Amino acid sequence: MSLSIWFSLFTICLLGAISPGPSLAMVIKHSLAGGRANGLATSWAHATGIGLYALLSMLGLAVIFHQFPLLFHAISYAGAAYLAYLGVNALRSKGGIAAKLESGTPVSVFQSAKEGFLVSILSPKIALFFAALFSPFVAEVHQISGKMLMVATPWLVDGLWYTLIACLLSNARFLEKLRSQAMWIDRLSGLALIFLALYILTTI
Fold first, then answer.
1. Are 30 and 39 in contact (CB under 8 A)?
2. GO CC terms for this protein (predicted)?
């Protein structure tokens, strides 16, 4: 893979990672509720979902979606339902950040990792990103080493970006300020997740 092709791929992956959405909300939620370990678990589980999509793109994700549109619709509906579920829970503070902090209930690292993975693997936005923007690079790369780099790049970019977010959020002073606003963060993240779920349903 030439440096120019890799840099173009890197730039697209970075822009995709830093765009705000449910992934960012999820990392913020778990960094706030459980601290740095939970934030990192969410970040790298999310990146694993990204890496899986990159691998599927190497196997022809765009062709798969074209031949089996029901598969893409199933991912979209499942993703919308999952986001709506998380949003309603956050609004009601049932399992949300505020409820867990008030009750002293610890958030397990496994739970953080599970939600991080699900929010990436069930996201139609991410599926479309790889089908539309990532797949064209596949035709440019033929060597096994280049293909491995193509899978590793989005995985590393996503994981490192959200690692940075988790580390910034887990700063002791900053974390206490955020936790004092836990109820408002629950409400805002809940509304954002429900809005995203509705948006997905209207664009399927």
1. yes
2. plasma membrane
Cα 12 from Cα 67, distance rounded (Å): 26
Q: How many domains does the chain have?
A: 1
Read off the amino acid at residue 198. Answer: L
pTM for this model (two decimals): 0.69
Q: Summarize pLDDT for 80-121 with one digit per residue, the tens.
A: 787 787 778 777 765 555 555 554 456 789 988 998 999 898
Query: Over the stretch 141-197, which tens digit does the pLDDT of each residue have?
Result: 778 888 888 889 999 999 999 999 888 877 767 666 666 666 776 677 677 777 777
The answer to whether residues 49 and 162 touch, using CB atoms and an 8 Å cutoff, is no
68-99 per-residue burial string, b: 16 or more CB within 10 A, e: under 16: eeeebeebbeebbebbbebbbbbbebebbbbb
Buried b (16+ CB within 10 A) or exposed e, 136-170: ebbeebeeeebbebbbebbbbbbbebbbebbeebb
Q: How many CB atoms lie within 10 A of CB 103?
A: 8
Q: Which domain holds residue 176?
A: 3-203
Burial class (CB in 10 A: 0-12, 13-18, 19+), 29: buried
Question: Nearest 5°: CA angle at 110, between 107 and 116?
Answer: 90
Helix-strand-coil split of the chain, %, nearest 5: 85, 0, 15
